[in-house]
Amino acid sequence: FGSLIQRIMEKVPGINETILSVHCHNDLGMATANSLAAIKNGARQIE
């Protein structure tokens, strides 16, 4: 999931002018890990 956020941050023009937010569900027990990976790779808000 972190690599997806990283690619979004690299490829979307003007992304640094927005707040990238993620909302992870815990169906597979990965919500916390995915949320932390998102923050590490540029997301600015976790829901």
UniProtKB/TrEMBL annotation:
<dbReference type="InterPro" id="IPR013785">
    <property type="entry name" value="Aldolase_TIM"/>
</dbReference>
<comment type="pathway">
    <text>Amino-acid biosynthesis; L-leucine biosynthesis; L-leucine from 3-methyl-2-oxobutanoate: step 1/4.</text>
</comment>
<keyword id="KW-0808">Transferase</keyword>
<feature type="domain" description="Pyruvate carboxyltransferase">
    <location>
        <begin position="1"/>
        <end position="47"/>
    </location>
</feature>
<dbReference type="GO" id="GO:0009098">
    <property type="term" value="P:L-leucine biosynthetic process"/>
</dbReference>
<dbReference type="InterPro" id="IPR002034">
    <property type="entry name" value="AIPM/Hcit_synth_CS"/>
</dbReference>
<dbReference type="GO" id="GO:0003852">
    <property type="term" value="F:2-isopropylmalate synthase activity"/>
</dbReference>
<dbReference type="Pfam" id="PF00682">
    <property type="entry name" value="HMGL-like"/>
</dbReference>
<keyword id="KW-0028">Amino-acid biosynthesis</keyword>
<dbReference type="InterPro" id="IPR000891">
    <property type="entry name" value="PYR_CT"/>
</dbReference>
<dbReference type="InterPro" id="IPR050073">
    <property type="entry name" value="2-IPM_HCS-like"/>
</dbReference>
<keyword id="KW-0100">Branched-chain amino acid biosynthesis</keyword>
<protein>
    <recommendedName>
        <fullName>2-isopropylmalate synthase</fullName>
        <ecNumber>2.3.3.13</ecNumber>
    </recommendedName>
</protein>
